[in-house]
Each structure stands twice: as C-alpha cells, then as structure tokens.
Amino acid sequence: MTTMSAGARLRAAMAAEKPLQMPGAINAFAAMQAERAGFKALYVSGAGIANASYGLPDLGMTSLDNVCEDIRRISGATELPMLVDADTGWGAVFNIQRTVREFIRAGAAACHIEDQVQAKRCGHRPGKQVVPKEDFADRIKAAVDGRQDPDFVIVARTDALAVEGIDAALERAVLAQEAGADVIFAEACTTIAEYQRFVATLGIPVLANLTEFGKTPYFTVDELREAGIAMIIYPLSAFRAMARAAEAVYATIRADGTQKAVVDRMQTRMELYEVLGYHGYEQRLDRLFGKGD
To answer: Where are the alpha helices (DSSP H) in the chain?
Structure first.
C-alpha cells in the first residue's frame, strides 16, 4: 500500500500520462473494473451519485454526506486517485472549506468547484446561471484555504462559456487561477479552438469533459493532447452502458419468463470473482481457520 496521499498520487498520475484519462466510476465495483482496464485515475460524478445512488436528477439534490459516503466506498476498493464533483461547495466560505476537508478525509484526491448558482443544473443543459466572477474566485480561495493536504488538487470549473461566451469564461478562468486553482475545468466547449484558447491563456492544466449526448463532441485523446489538454473525464460512459444493459435484461426476463436469452450478455460468476479477488479471500479463510470438509 502506498504511503503517498491521494492528492500526491493524482499529481503523479498527471505527470505520467498526458492527457490523463479519468473514467467515471459510479460505485466501488465500477472503480475496480476501471483499474483493471488500465486507468490511472478516476472521476466521481455528482450526476452519477445522484442518479445511481439516490435515483435523483443532477440538480444539486444530494448532500456533502451523500457524496462522502460514495467516496469512502470507492477509496476502500481501489487506490486510484479520484477527482470528485463538489458542485458549488454546499454553501459559503466555511461550508466550502468543510467540503474540502471532508473530501480529503474520505479519500478523494481532488474536487472541482463550479461557478453556477446554488440551484445548479447539468453543465450541458440550457438555463444555467452563473454567480458573479468575484464570487467564483472567492469560492476557489475558500477551497484552497481549506485543504489540509497541500497536494489535494483544487479544480475550478467554469460554466460561463455557454452562458456569457468564451471571453467571459476565460476571464473567470484567469481569476480562478489567481485565486489558487490547480486546474481549470472548461465546461461545455464545442471546438478544439476553444480548448486551445483556455490553454494559451492560462498557466495551469486544463480539463476537458467528454460527457455523452452533450455540447462537447467526442474528441480523441490525440486531438486533445495536441490542443494541450492535461486531463479528460468521461463522467457517465460506463453507467450509461450499464443502464441500457439492465433495461434489456429486465425487459427480457419479464417478457420471456426466463433469463436464458440474455445470459450471454452477463458477466459470469467466475469473471465477477476475478474482479473481486474472491478466491484470495477464501484462501485467507482457509489459512486462518483451516480448510472445511
């Protein structure tokens, strides 16, 4: 087990892989699958927690404690460092500082704080509103001041591009950088040129969000590397596929009265055991208590 903090592990991953691909993990098992696929870091989406853990839309309806519970579950299953969605920080200065402290305690490596109003919306939906740029900078200052681990990564997310345009978004990004942000999350970019403007304007890494069915095209790693992007998140890609697969299985069992037609789509028991390291647990039981009859 590594003695590096989660934040230090994320910084090491950012240095080793450019851009750093961070798939969304909605729970501990998904995180383990992502690790087996070779990823070096994870993203924990606020939408993923709301949708998958609570059956709620991504409208700021989950609490700090809700999110920390999922962070603890995932950090207990893998040492991959996690960037976690902190929405607007759950309040003003002291709330934001508490959010950062609780995220670190739960095992997160980084969080992103955004500039939407408290009654936030999904970043790729219409009707978003952002707070004044000075308030956004104050949120970032609070987050930076609240971290007890200096390696914990503070990501400043601006949603202003879709609301006020590229120049306003860049101005906000600069203010966030001056406030101490380690990374800028440029939300809902629609072109490589927009990403290039963020990279050219700033002196810190820029993150791209490649969520599906949103405003941002499905750019490749090579395209974003060429643009200078340092981090890429895929917030709900696996979750969307899981949900579609589950719909098909439920519908088939209900219609056919048997699961026979969809068994070939399922992970086998032995494949599940392999991900979990099941046989290793059994072997430890045998060593501790002796093999049964």
So the answer is: 6-16, 28-36, 46-48, 54, 64-75, 93-106, 133-146, 161-164, 166-178, 192-201, 221-227, 237-256, 269-276, 278-289
Omega within 30 of 0 (cis) for the link into 19 = yes
For the record, the structure tokens of 61 come out as: 């309806």
Residues 147-195 have pLDDT tens digits of 999 999 999 999 999 899 999 999 999 999 999 999 999 999 999 999 9
Question: 173: how many CB neighbours lie within 10 A of its CB?
Answer: 28
| pTM (2 d.p.) | 0.94
105-122 burial, b for 16+ CB within 10 Å, e for fewer? ebbbbbbbbbbbeeebbb
pLDDT score of 96? 97
Sign for the CA dihedral angle at 210, 213, 214, 217 comes to: positive
pLDDT at 75 over 80: yes
Token reading at 155: 């990501």
Query: Higher model confidence: residue 59 or residue 250?
Result: 250
- Cα-Cα-Cα-Cα dihedral of 206, 84, 140, 163, to 10°? 60
Residues paired with 42 in a beta bridge: 82
CB 62 within 8 A of CB 115: no
Question: Which residue numbers are catalytic?
Answer: 43, 58, 85, 87, 112, 114, 122, 157, 187, 209
